[in-house]
Amino acid sequence: MDDKIGVMNVYTDLAIDSREMASKEDIEIEGVRLDVEGDENIRVTIVDIQNENGKRLMKRPIGKYITIESESMKINDVDTHEDIIKIMAQKIGELTELKPTSAVLVVGLGNWSVTPDSLGPKVISKILVTRHLSDTGALPDALEGSLRSVCAISPGVMGQTGIETLEIVKGIVDKVKPDLVVAVDALAARQTNRINSTIQMSNTGVSPGAGMCNKRLQINEETLGTPVVAVGVPTVVDAATLVNDTLDRMLDEIISQTTVGSEFYDMLKHLESEDKYRIIEQILNPYAGNMFVTPKEVDATIDRLSGIIANALNIALHPGISLSDINRYIG
Amino acid sequence: MDDKIGVMNVYTDLAIDSREMASKEDIEIEGVRLDVEGDENIRVTIVDIQNENGKRLMKRPIGKYITIESESMKINDVDTHEDIIKIMAQKIGELTELKPTSAVLVVGLGNWSVTPDSLGPKVISKILVTRHLSDTGALPDALEGSLRSVCAISPGVMGQTGIETLEIVKGIVDKVKPDLVVAVDALAARQTNRINSTIQMSNTGVSPGAGMCNKRLQINEETLGTPVVAVGVPTVVDAATLVNDTLDRMLDEIISQTTVGSEFYDMLKHLESEDKYRIIEQILNPYAGNMFVTPKEVDATIDRLSGIIANALNIALHPGISLSDINRYIG
Amino acid sequence: MDDKIGVMNVYTDLAIDSREMASKEDIEIEGVRLDVEGDENIRVTIVDIQNENGKRLMKRPIGKYITIESESMKINDVDTHEDIIKIMAQKIGELTELKPTSAVLVVGLGNWSVTPDSLGPKVISKILVTRHLSDTGALPDALEGSLRSVCAISPGVMGQTGIETLEIVKGIVDKVKPDLVVAVDALAARQTNRINSTIQMSNTGVSPGAGMCNKRLQINEETLGTPVVAVGVPTVVDAATLVNDTLDRMLDEIISQTTVGSEFYDMLKHLESEDKYRIIEQILNPYAGNMFVTPKEVDATIDRLSGIIANALNIALHPGISLSDINRYIG
Amino acid sequence: MDDKIGVMNVYTDLAIDSREMASKEDIEIEGVRLDVEGDENIRVTIVDIQNENGKRLMKRPIGKYITIESESMKINDVDTHEDIIKIMAQKIGELTELKPTSAVLVVGLGNWSVTPDSLGPKVISKILVTRHLSDTGALPDALEGSLRSVCAISPGVMGQTGIETLEIVKGIVDKVKPDLVVAVDALAARQTNRINSTIQMSNTGVSPGAGMCNKRLQINEETLGTPVVAVGVPTVVDAATLVNDTLDRMLDEIISQTTVGSEFYDMLKHLESEDKYRIIEQILNPYAGNMFVTPKEVDATIDRLSGIIANALNIALHPGISLSDINRYIG
Predict the structure, then answer these.
(1) How many angstroms separate the CA atoms of C309 and C46, rounded?
(2) What CATH number is given for C2-240+290-330 in this structure?
(3) Which of A34, B121, B253, D171 has the most CB atoms less than 10 A away?
(4) For chain B, what percent of residues have pLDDT higher than 70?
(5) Among C78, C324, C329, beta carbon nearest to A329
(6) Domain ranges in chain D with CATH number 3.40.50.1450
(7) Distance (Å, rounded) from C-alpha B190 to C-alpha D31?
(8) pTM greater than 0.90 (yes/no)
């Protein structure tokens, strides 16, 4: 879904960008509340869009957006990963009201066969699914009483279906009638440095394919009739964004080094951002329209990220389980 | 689903067995019509259960059951496979009324991760899916006008999702509203020689998991509200069936060779079949309850069978496509 | 490899069976030492064939055979699994001399695409591979100095290759020159109750395909020029074995209940075991030659077993790592 | 392998680029012979580097480089694909001397788990492997006498095995002793428009990982002791290349539209190409070093390309097989 906001912003779902772009001088915006927690290892940003004014300025629906950023996600720093898991599990609790009897459906969006888009399906494969166990009594003794009813699907790995993702999800929601839907997806970032180091969660739903630029229908409380918590990780940057970012930094460097002709570089740089982006898009289009940028070791990265997200969901949804339990039962 | 008929018959869906067992002397049964076509290479049996009497005797719902048998399915005899594909495509037409505008949903039941149960999902991966192409105009020129609207899913198994297969299929049927559902599944056979050489089709629905002994809910016109054509291939024999069959043959051989004590072997053989089977089941249960027998090269076999079935469905559902087209576009 | 011993024994690699069959009255056999450890939860049997006499009687090469049996392997009893992992890691140390500088190659035999035969490849996917890290310095700090040089291959997932497994393994051994090769494989058991609850290890090598009845070449110190520890889990029983076992038990039950004609049942039962087995094999052969019996939930079982084995190998091969480290870095 | 040539050229293996860059005015270069065949649909370029002078100018080893370019590879134009298959099969014959008795090993380099790098393994899965069939007599009758001895492997990547790809390949070559090795790999292109529409073949070997920027050892006749035909398809462009290309085109467009200040844009454009590239690389590095650009539908693309390449190899290596045979036996 095209997410148009005041400044140039395509293919992005990150609230932080919205905040940065709407207010460069860090002035408080009426109707938008910003909180920052954490340290240099793990940074948590909570953006709460509270009314129509905030919605209009931020160009995003009213609701809560929690972002966890940590460079540790890019490497095998398991200690920090465990901290992230605990923080994420707790923050999920701040996004939605879960009762002990709440039944939850976790939906993994994306395509298993395209590595940077396989985050959703891989999370699903690590979710502790329990909905079917209640009547059969097959629950391991130690876990009785500590679990919620959780089920999980990956519409994208139901095969190349010919069916809209929203149709599949809505059809299953109508039958299963969960109290909450958690939707996990890979996203596109607006800045290259955000890739694979940011987890965004919100209670306003998700546009599947936003990250991979498919015009697909939105998945949210309005379309499903059920509250939706969306969890996304930017795993790609689209090619035009990458070029634009790099050009900006290149010009910054040149401008800082030359005096002669600097006004022309300034002119190049301050070309209306949207115009500059359109020029780049047009140039790229015949050759690279629809191309995305991803790191080479993307498979290890997606495995790592899917483990973090799945573990956090398992802890958040099953109140009696700790992280070491998860490792032993699922890992 | 337990399929109880007059003689011992568990875990089987094959109409031929019904026919054989209900009438050992080949007497015409009122309410049941039997036709046989083909030759020694490919044998086609059509069992038409027409009224309540036939239903009571055959212990199967009223409807049509078409079985294609050919030893060639067990090997790489591509010529005979092409004949089977054409016959199967034609017979599908005899099971249901397809208009040019009919929209079809193909459902692949079973578990990709258990090789003999992966037939359904593998067929789905080879179906020519078209439902999503109409509005985008992405259809290859040559195919325009020769296709129906076809979509496909593999719901996975309850152990993976926590959701009953029927719930998932019904949820999607309610949204997609196809005119016909084709459900593909792996089955259990009652005789070891039927494995991987028999394709059964019917218009009375399927009990998913019948082959792999999960008590799951039925998928048919009654539960879905849409006509259902079921396609099944026995890929396993359950352990108790195998033992019972072999014991019978063993006794036959001993009886034919000995005179002394033969009356005792007769006695052993004519133990009420159901009793003999129960004894065997009880003996096996602590050790091998729920065990199935399958050939070692099962992966190549399932690949081969899924290709035959998918090709036949593609030809049957897309009227303008021939087998060589399929090979080029899909293969 | 056909493993012929005094009594009927096909498709089996279990030393326990050898011991049972060679000496029904538990008499000490000269040249064979038997030790049993553990409790009713986990039972460890060590069979040490020490000289030519023992070799001749047991029909197995001179060497050590350690078997770990536990019903807990069939279910999700993670506490007992952790005990098994520790025991197995320790016993591996009793089978071979590992120095801190020893370089190890782990080989996963089998076919990923046939679920009961996928044990080897799945273990390989969970091995902590380190050989390539030494020069790049990519080792996570915390692990430095606690690891051996370990590499791992799955010849069967190098694709359907057309190359003998032994050729592939020997070719790689000649280049990599490890100090030890650990070969993991799925086996066939002689008794149905052994399936998925037994881990056998030995230092006499393995015949790949013994379990799945392919006449493939042996992998041992003689053919590789390097010491070999073999690790196997019976995941299947061949069909003829299953029938024979069940028939025996059936007859036991009938004999214990009838008086009349019991001498004939006795006669049936005491048919020379090998003859009885041959009759069964012949009867099965046209229909089910080469068929194997496996439980329905075999995918979950293989996942569980591969986790136990891989964890045990990781602990045994990397001296500075504990089980919780493994869970966090690998799991 | 860093492929340094006169002008800026990193991460590329395409002979065409070499030719273009070495001689902008299409002057014949002594020691280099260029031939062009085909039409606007499929263009075939043969670059023959014949002596030390050509080698020095083109910065590539002496040998033959055949490139097939066709936009049809990006879509489902099966008719043109069949033409490409026939052309490629014929050109392979021009790269190497195949006798009827030649034994061939096909090696699929790359990582199945990273979609744009999975070309090699996917080709391997479609190769008609025959080496193992000769003694077992399992060849389908119709194919006898029309096949060569062909085997195939996918060594995986060093991060999975801990073993250098060259070590694995050399170990197997030493055992199997083929007369020819065909190595298939995904590459990086220097120009975005080359992606997924170019197949390059040469008889000078390949540097595995060149495309994905791993400094891995070369696979060629010198390192293997066997002639090597390399087949590569650029499936990615590295991020720095993409930025640089786009910047150039952007500047061209601006320059063509403005008069004022154009000399400054010229200056920007004619920054020594290598300097400009280095600046871009430095800017990208902390954020996107090692990042690659690939189209979103990369999985369908790789499937399509692997089918074309595998079919061409099957026809080239097995003289008695036609394309329709391949479709029926393999597809």
Answers:
(1) 18
(2) 3.40.50.1450
(3) B121
(4) 71
(5) C78
(6) 2-240+290-330
(7) 73
(8) no
